[in-house]
Structure formats: C-alpha cells, structure tokens
Design a protein that fits this description.
heterodimer; A: 178 residues; Alpha-Beta Plaits; 6 helices; B: 475 residues; mainly alpha
C-alpha cells in the first residue's frame, strides 16, 4: 500500500557527462515518465532523453501574427474608418505609415506568445513538486545532477529500477514521497 | 573504379592533413573554477552582509534622484516655461536626454540578444548586468518625453484609446511610432531579463536561510526546479526572445531617428540617420557597460568571471561602433556638400564653426578620437584608462544628441527666426537627477538579484561539456 504513495526514485550524479550517459540508458530501457534535473541546460540532453523539438515557436508565430494584423487593423479602424481626419494631405490609410507601429506590435505580441508558451508547456508556475521535497535536490540548482523515475511509469518497479539506477552510475538512490 | 571503402580511407587521410591546427580558445572563466565556486561567488554578493559603501551610495543617489522629482513637480506646476525652451529651439535638453538614455540601453539588448544569436559565449558574465542597465536606462529615458508634452495630464492621448471627443491618436506621426517603439522595448527588455533570471532565482531560493527570502525568491522563481523537460522549452523560448529582441533593438533607435529624419529641418532630414543612430546607441551603451562593470569587477573580486578577454571584446566593439559614428559624421558633411543644397551645407558648416562649435568639437574629440586609443593593447589592458575613455564616450554621445537637436533648430530656413538656446537650472537639475535614479535602481539590483547569469556561465565552462571527461570519445 505504502508503495502507491511514493512519487518515484531519485539518483544523484556528479558530472554532466555521467548524467547524460545515464539518461541515454534510461531512454533505451523504454521509460516514459522520468526526468533529468540539472543546474544548467546540458548540451545534447534533448537527444539523450529522446525529447521532441520544443513547441514554443508555434506560440511565437501566433503571437506575432496577431500583433501584425491586429496593428494594421487597429490603425485602419482608428484613422481611416471610425474617425477619419485629413493630416497633411496624407492618405487615410496606407500600410507604409502603419508599418512601424504594426512591426513593434508584432514583436511585442510574439514575445508575449513565447513567454506564455514556455510557461504553459512547462506547467509553470508550480510552487509545489515532490522532487523539491528531497533535501539534496536543492543542489540541483548549484552543482549536482539528478535522474527521477516516476512511479506512474508503466515499466516502473522499485527493485529493478533501483538496481538499474545504481548500475548506470547513480548515487544515493532514494525514494521520493508524493 | 575505386570502391566506397577506398574513397573513405583516402578522404579521411586527406581530412587529417587538411584539418587546421586547433587554436586554443580564450577561457571564459579563469583558474578552472568549478560550478559551486560560481554559485558561491555570485550568490555571495546577495547573501553577504550589506557593505557600508552600498548604503552611502544608495543615500547619495537617492538624494540626487530628488532633483528629477522636484524638477518634474515644478515643471508640471509652472509649465514648460521653466525650461530654456523658446522659439525656434522647442526641443532642448529633454529630447537630448531622452535619446541619450535610450541609446545607453541598446548595449544591454545587443549583449543579451545579438551576441546570443551569434553564439558569442563571452556575453554570459556581463549580460545580466547589461540588461538591468537597459531597463533602468529606459526608465530614465521614459520620463523626458512624458513631461515634455507640456500638459502631462493629457499624455494618455498617446495611447490607442479615444479621447473625450472620440478622436483617436494620429498614426501618421513618427512621435506616435516612438511611443510604441519605446514601450515595446521597455516591456520586452523587462520580460527577457526576468525570464533569463528564473533559474538563478531558483538557486537563491534553494540557498535562502530566512523565511522572507524563501517566500520572495520562491515566488519569483515560479517553482523552477531545473527539470530538463523545462530547460528544453526554456532554451527555445530564450533563443526566440533573442531573435525577437534583435530586430526590436535595431528598430527602436531607427524609429527614434525618424522623429528627426521624417521632418524637413536641415541637418535632421537625412537618410543616414537610422543606421547612424543605431551605431551611436551601441557605442554609448558599451561605454556605459564598461563604466559600470569595471568598478564592480574590482569591488566584488570578479576577475575570474569578467576576464581581460571580456574587456578586450567590449573595447573592440566600442572601437568598431565609434569608428562607424566617426564615418557617419564625415559622410554627413560629404552629402551636405554633394547634395548641393544651400540650407543643408549651411547647417553643417554652422555646426562645426557656428555658435555651437564648442559642442561640436567636444563631440568629435570624445566620440571620434578617444575610442581610437583602443587600437592599442596596452590601453585595453589598463582598466583605469578604459574607464576614463568610456567616461569620454558617455560625454561625447550626450553632446552628439545636443548637437543634432539644438544646432539644427537654432538655425532654421529664415534668419529672422534664428536663436541661441541655453538650458535653465531646472533643465540641468532634472537631467542630473536621472543619474541618481539610474544608480539607485542599479544598487537595488546589485543587492537583491543575481548580478551574473550563473546557469549560463556554468554552461560555458569546459566541465559543462558532457564529453569533457571522455578521452577521445566516439562523439
């Protein structure tokens, strides 16, 4: 019974190289619900974990498109449709004069899209997570590297997973409370 | 016919011969410091006791910033007549200061965004402070056009909302483009800075000893835990923000220059303005980055993180952009002559030899001559000399904007409307006060937020490479 309450297993590694080679093995074992915790982005870890390309760019594109066309539409509505005023004999609407503002709005909304996308895809802010209850994991923001295998993974079984984590070089393999 | 195997072996021996000798790269972190040393050194600034000099500087800068506060209140109460503005010079120090401060900010974005895209790893130890500088410079810049509109209580007419008569803002004016450019710049710079800081805030949270620190750093760290699934999206987002900030920073000073270039005033109405303004902005910004970073480096003993290599790189960018600015000055003169427009050539001869010649030659000395000293390695290796040259650059770039704004306006098409502009004490005090505001904000940043991007610095150290310990590995 108590086993069902456990969040998973955590193992510690000392170098980026060690954790990456270990991650490659966890990936090859076929685990799906697992994670690597590192103090900085380790180059090549995406492939080592078998992650797909991030989907943040989609959010950026949508934000940018809304910014540009929204800006053009706004300026046309305000200066040429809702209350047209002749200024210096210039046309009521022209994409030329509307461009600088639409350009800035493209960048502004694309930046909003990027940040919203990053937070949504990462499910942040998340101020509670079982991994953060582990005392030693605070060093993951300093100089230590961790691999966590969650108990929800279909291939998860405490004994075999523990042995595997030890075999691939993990130290202080412990169970995480949920 | 040779077999595939043979081609392969021949190619490999050829490649081995043709491969250039590996050139040793300059170290970005000296003395082989480990990850923990970097964390301790950067967090130590925030976690250690408050130094006395910090309190002294904070009080002095707080006092100086009162000049801007009092100057602004007086201006709003009495009207723009308290400034030295009058016909024909209706854009005086306020606009000069606005362009000056906005330009300062540009180096921060250049370091964080453009150098990120160009994979210049040396940016990592200076980008955080440079971005902070950008944001505080934009804060100082934003004050001036706002109070310059005269009746500040109508400043909301600049926003895309209808006024009491249901009239919308007029988007054919470059001044309105400027509102959008500067506010977008401020917002995106702030977001970029904050997103870059999230992993470092998590480090501070994990090390926090007191409850209030745990709660505050914990809140702003958004629950970051260093998961690689997060890093993957985070790095993509960071790269995209860098990609967005690059065209942004180039467009902001372009649009600022449109304020001048789209008008018909001789000396303003030139197509060289956008690139020339952007180069000048980066030039002044690097001057300010070095002005700030050199003292910080020696106060906090950051010589292993901000190395001579970093200073060299920054000096060279200052030299390159300073030379571009000098070239632009020369081209302006050439075009004024080549364009065969009497008003245009008069405007330029008047700049160099008219009543404001003193300002013009201060500008030339500081901006064109002083950075040329960076050609010499001896100068670049002497922090005191670099610092003094950078002060000259800051002064020179302020004068550049003064020369552009004031000399052009004071000599219009008609001699009957000529005039000579002098600032009043309110002008001067309001400007001096912004240095107080800037320093005050920067000191707060220094005390409470991570001065350097720890995660990024760790990532560029040799031991961060996963293949660092594989000797002759397969990769």
């Amino acid at each position: 019974m108590s086993q069902e309450k456990k969040y998973g297993l955590i193992a510690e590694f000392e170098t980026p190289g060690a954790v990456m080679h270990a991650a490659e093995k966890v990936r090859d074992e076929g685990f799906k619900h697992w994670d690597v915790i590192t103090p900085f982005p380790v180059h090549g870890m995406d492939q080592a974990m078998g992650l797909n390309r991030s989907r943040v760019p989609l959010f950026t594109l949508v934000g940018g498109a809304i910014g540009f066309f929204g800006g053009m539409l706004m300026i046309w509505y305000m200066n040429a449709y809702d209350y047209p005023i002749v200024v210096g004999g210039k046309p009521m609407f022209s994409p030329m004069y509307a461009f600088p503002v639409s350009y800035e709005l493209t960048i502004l909304l694309a930046a909003f899209g990027t940040i919203i996308g990053m937070f949504l895809l990462n499910r942040l802010p998340m101020h509670y997570h079982p991994a953060m209850k582990h005392e030693a994991v605070a060093r993951a923001s300093d100089d230590r590297f961790y691999i966590i295998i969650e108990s929800t993974d279909p291939r998860f079984e405490v004994k075999t997973a523990t042995t595997m984590l030890k075999e691939i070089g993990g130290q202080n393999v412990t169970q995480l409370e949920d | 016919m040779i077999s595939l195997e043979e081609t392969k072996s021949v190619n490999e021996s050829l490649i081995r011969e043709a491969r250039p000798a590996s050139v040793p790269r300059r170290k970005l972190v000296e003395n082989d410091r480990d990850f923990n040393w970097i964390t301790e050194r950067v967090c130590g600034i925030v976690e250690g006791g408050t130094p006395t000099w910090w309190w002294v500087c904070l009080l002095v800068s707080g006092f100086v910033s009162l000049f801007t506060v009092i100057g602004t209140i007086y201006l709003i109460a009495a009207g723009v007549g308290v400034w030295g503005l009058s016909n024909p010079v209706n854009w005086g120090w306020a606009i000069v200061n606005f362009v000056f401060w906005i330009g300062i900010g540009h180096a921060g974005t250049l370091i964080s965004a453009i150098l990120c895209l160009l994979k210049q790893n040396w940016r990592t130890s200076i980008n955080r402070a440079a971005e902070a500088m950008t944001i505080f410079a934009v804060v100082c810049a934003g004050i001036f056009p706002l109070i310059h509109v005269g009746r500040v209580w109508f400043a909301w007419w600049l926003f895309p909302i209808p006024n009491a008569n249901e009239i919308w803002p007029q988007f054919r004016s470059p001044l309105l483009w400027d509102v959008f450019a500067v506010s977008t710049y401020g917002t995106v710079s702030l977001l970029f800075w904050y997103v870059g800081m999230i992993p470092d805030l998590a480090t501070l949270r994990d090390r926090a000893k007191t409850r209030i620190r745990q709660v505050l750093y914990g809140f702003f760290a958004m629950g970051w835990r260093g998961s690689h699934r997060h890093w993957s999206n985070y790095e993509m987002a960071y790269l995209l923000l860098a990609g967005l900030a690059t065209p942004l920073v180039l467009s902001v000073h372009t649009i600022v220059s449109f304020d001048f270039a789209v008008s018909l005033i001789p000396g303003w109405h030139t197509t060289i303005f956008p690139p020339y303004f952007v180069a000048g902005a980066i030039f002044s910004g690097f001057g300010m980055v070095l002005t700030i970073m050199l003292p910080l480096r020696s106060i906090y003993g950051l010589h292993d993180l901000i190395t001579q290599y970093h200073i060299d790189c920054m000096c060279k960018i200052t030299l390159a952009t300073g030379s571009m600015v000098g070239y632009a000055y020369a081209i302006e003169f050439f075009i004024a002559w080549y364009g065969a427009n009497d008003f245009e050539s008069f405007a330029f001869i008047n700049r160099a030899f008219g009543p404001y010649a003193w300002a013009y030659w201060i500008m030339i000395t500081c901006n064109v001559i002083s950075p040329q000293l960076f050609w010499f390695r001896k100068v670049r290796e002497n922090p005191a000399a670099v610092w003094i040259i950078c002060i000259f650059v800051n002064i020179g770039m302020w004068f550049e904007r003064f020369v552009i704004v004031v000399t052009s306006l004071s000599r219009d098409f008609l001699p009957t409307s000529w005039g000579y502009y002098s600032p009043t004490v309110v002008d001067i005090m309001t400007y001096v006060g912004t240095f107080g505001i800037f320093t005050f904000l920067f000191l707060l940043f220094l005390r409470f937020l991570p001065l350097m991007a720890m995660a990024e610095i760790k990532a560029v150290t040799p031991q961060a490479d996963p293949h660092h310990h594989d000797q002759g590995g397969s990769h």
